[in-house]
Amino acid sequence: MDTLRAGVVAVQGDVTEHADAIERAAEAHGVAADIVEIRSAGLVPDCDVLLMPGGESTTISRLLEREGIDEEIQAHVAAEKPVLATCAGLIVASSDAKDDRVETLDILDVTVDRNAFGRQVDSFEAPLDVEGLDAPFPAVFIRAPLIDDVGNDVDVLAEWDGNPVAVRDGPVVGTSFHPELTADSRLHDLAFFDDLEVEAK
């Protein structure tokens, strides 16, 4: 069986939930998933796909820079390898977080407002029509960032209340919501198995 080496940036966020979702998506394609938790430099170059979970964006960006993981992620994207960045991961991946405390990776040409959907108590779940999916996705929004501007080459995959909440920029898919907090792994499938060639490791 072919193996997908999937790196989950594990400095913060729902690492286990994302790993489970990747494994489910891989299994649906008859592929084994080798999950690598990334907390230091040197692991990203061996990964086929990367996932950047939520958490606290200023902390995530500082740790990525301190450990030298930031440049490895940028090289991963430059090599056209897939990335799924969710919630705070989306903020860190963006070109502009409108917050000088966040050192963005500039791998996703969007501008975001942190926590624009409100505080923890304002969290909600909504059925979301996502381009490429045949039925609504149960999107979970928790202190979600708002995508308020997208670059010319960015495809908007889903909107909520007139605002983009899922986008694709080349090999990078970003979501304002948490796709890992549901048993539905179609977002991981969409991000990682769209024209992905998996080789035996």
TrEMBL record:
| Keyword Lyase included in the entry's annotation | yes
- Signal peptide range: none
Pathway the protein takes part in: Cofactor biosynthesis; pyridoxal 5'-phosphate biosynthesis
What Gene Ontology molecular-function terms does this entry list?
glutaminase activity; pyridoxal 5'-phosphate synthase (glutamine hydrolysing) activity; transferase activity
Quote the Pfam families the UniProt record gives: SNO (PF01174)
Q: Which amino acid positions bind L-glutamine, per UniProt?
A: G55, E56, S57, R114, I142, R143
Annotated catalysed reactions: aldehydo-D-ribose 5-phosphate + D-glyceraldehyde 3-phosphate + L-glutamine = pyridoxal 5'-phosphate + L-glutamate + phosphate + 3 H2O + H(+); L-glutamine + H2O = L-glutamate + NH4(+)
**What are the annotated GO cellular component locations?**
cytosol; glutaminase complex
Q: Which UniProt keywords apply?
A: Glutamine amidotransferase, Hydrolase, Lyase, Pyridoxal phosphate, Transferase
The catalytic residues are: C87, H178, E180
Which InterPro entries does this chain map to?
A: Class_I_gatase-like, PdxT/SNO
Its Enzyme Commission number(s) read 4.3.3.6, 3.5.1.2
BP terms from Gene Ontology? L-glutamine catabolic process; pyridoxal phosphate biosynthetic process; pyridoxine metabolic process
**Has keyword Lyase?**
yes
Q: What does this protein do?
A: Catalyzes the hydrolysis of glutamine to glutamate and ammonia as part of the biosynthesis of pyridoxal 5'-phosphate. The resulting ammonia molecule is channeled to the active site of PdxS.
What is the protein's quaternary organization? In the presence of PdxS, forms a dodecamer of heterodimers. Only shows activity in the heterodimer.
Family under the similarity heading? Belongs to the glutaminase PdxT/SNO family.
Q: Which PANTHER family match?
A: PYRIDOXAL 5'-PHOSPHATE SYNTHASE SUBUNIT SNO, PYRIDOXAL 5'-PHOSPHATE SYNTHASE SUBUNIT SNO1-RELATED
Protein name, as recorded = Pyridoxal 5'-phosphate synthase subunit PdxT
Report the source organism: Haloferax mucosum ATCC BAA-1512
Gene responsible for this protein: pdxT
